Structure formats: C-alpha cells, structure tokens
Amino acid sequence: TIAATFRPECTSKSYKSVRCPWTTTAAGPGLEGGRATEQQMIIVQSRDVERKANRTGGLRIVAEAMDLDTRATVEGFQMSVVDKRDGTYVITYVASRPGLVRLQISMPEEGSLPTAPDAISGSPFTLRI
Asked: Distance between CA atoms of 89 and 59, rounded to whole angstroms?
C-alpha cells in the first residue's frame, strides 16, 4: 500500500493570519463530546508553517458535523464559530440527543468548499454525546 500526504502551500494576506491547516490545532472539553442539551466548547489555534501561533484572526474556519450511525447531517445539532481576532476561533455546539458525531474542522480558502487538505491537525474528531 502506498500513501501520500498533500500539504498545500501556506497562504498569507497582509491583513490576515497565515493559513496553514495542518499545523493548526484544536483543544478543549468539546473534543471529548458531552451530554446532550449542554453547550460544549472547542478552541482552534491557527498556526503558521513553523507551528507558531498566529496573533491575528480573519481566517475562514468551517466546522461540519455528521451522524456516524446514519452518515447524514446531525439533526438538532447547533453549532457556531467565532473569530476572537487573536488567532483563536471558538466553536460551540449543542447536541439535542446522544450519539456518535464526526466533527470535521477545516480552513478552506475564501470562496471554496472544504477539501481533505484543508482539514486542521487531528480532524476529523469523534464526539461522544
């Protein structure tokens, strides 16, 4: 078996952080999952190609949830992403019922759909609700 990893070039704009999905990290209790109807939180730290934390915001962060049992969009799953303008992004979510959820966090270019190379480090994550 042959495997290959595609690492696109990091991109930068003068008014934005450097976009490097594979060095960007996520942390927080929300990565473990939680109880249905309780709000959970995940902090995404954008990083440059040298893994240094970005100190400004403005990047596009996309979070997508899928029910692992039905392979469909999770019903009753409310989620938001907030740019803190300091290189971090806060993802909050509330699930209406228990189950396994696949959470994909990505950093696609403006105007494009998320693809596998846009996924941040460790994504997708499995949440136990």
From this structure: 9
pLDDT, tens digit (0-9, with 9 covering 90-100), for 106-124: 998 777 766 667 899 999 9
* Whether 59 contacts 10, CB under 8 Å: no
Cα 36 from chain centroid (whole Å):
20
| Cβ contact 89:83 at 8 Å | yes
Q: How many whole angstroms separate alpha carbon 4 and alpha carbon 34?
A: 34
Measuring CA to CA, which residue among 28, 84, 80 is closest to residue 55?
84
Tokens 């596998």 belong to which residue?
A: 116
- Grouping H, G, I as helix, E, B as strand and the rest as coil, residue 23 is helix
CA dist., res. 12 & res. 29, Å (int) = 30
Q: Are strands 77-83 and 88-95 parallel, antiparallel or unpaired?
A: antiparallel
Q: What pLDDT was estimated at residue 17?
A: 65
Rounded Cα distance, 120 and 125, in Å = 10
